[in-house]
Request: fold
Amino acid sequence: MQLSKPVKAVCISLFAFVLSMVLIQPFSASTAALFSSPEKNDFTISDFYNIVADGRDLAHLDDNIVIVNLDNSDRAEIAGLLNMISLCGPKAVGLDVTFEDRREGDSLLLEALAMTPALVQPLNLLPVQGSDSFALGGYSYFYRPGDDGFASSALPSKYANSTIREFRTVFPTRDAGSLPSFSLALARIADPDAAAELEQRGNKLEIINYHSRRFRCYEPSELLDHAEELAGRVVLLGALHEKGDLHPTPVNSMMAGIFIHANSLATVLDRAYMTSTPRWLQWLFGFLLCYLVVFTHLSLTVRIKGLVLRILQVGLLYATVQIGYYMFLIHNVVMDFSYALLMLTFGIFACDIWNGFAAISDWCVEKYRSFRKIRRPTTN
Reply:
């Protein structure tokens, strides 16, 4: 039965999807095996959008958050900084330091912590294997379960050194109930409405809006000259160059944890949430691109058919990337077109295989008919 071109194009496009699922999965597994660790293969198309967007000359200075560098600051210096910051009238203070052991002279620090209003301190939570809950890891020696001044500073990632793209809203624990993330706890103090909106979204994970944002960042010695800039803002204190607290992000291969918390908090305060398109929409878009290429392949009869198809593929590739970048930059929508881009290639591949099988089938039918004709007895 001879199929019409539209129906044949649909059949070949479906065949291309089957091919992609059969061929790409083992290929991905074998590729990952070539690397010493899985995080080296950790890249998504949204990372590309982040890199391009963050590299623009256009960037805005965040007006809600100030960062203070605590590199090489001891406890007495931290206590003095907290006292000075408290006098400046900040909306909230986030201290990303864990005091796990007691030390002589801690009385000054404890007094400064007690006198700092709207202070949030970190708890290091560790995932419990085989469940969605967490257990307490490192935390300050004076922490007591139920203390509202503490929140989780854990950064969700698939692997030990994989890219930090998201922050978790709430952490269910076995030891301390449900704990808010560092960003949510600070948002509840600085902007309760923004925090409520985050919780109403009901997402376990939220994508961090990294690109094109800069923060005021000062050394302790510079605070006196910029004291007025602390008033009415969230002040975050943390080390900027501590080796164990540097993480890869889409816009920086080594970003300090305090900057990741700042970007997470800014996403909440600015209501700059990123939305991921559902997987079914990604597949649908991939199918449509594949169908367009396949239908064009079936319809063209000119000698330069191959050249026209390659130009079409490149044009669709460019248009797809541009649409994804536009949606990311203007509408905060993450459209993962990686599968759609793959189907641009598999469409032509499926056509070649389909035509090859069709040619083999026609050859077999022709041979069978010739054989039947030879074997057919003649009548006198």
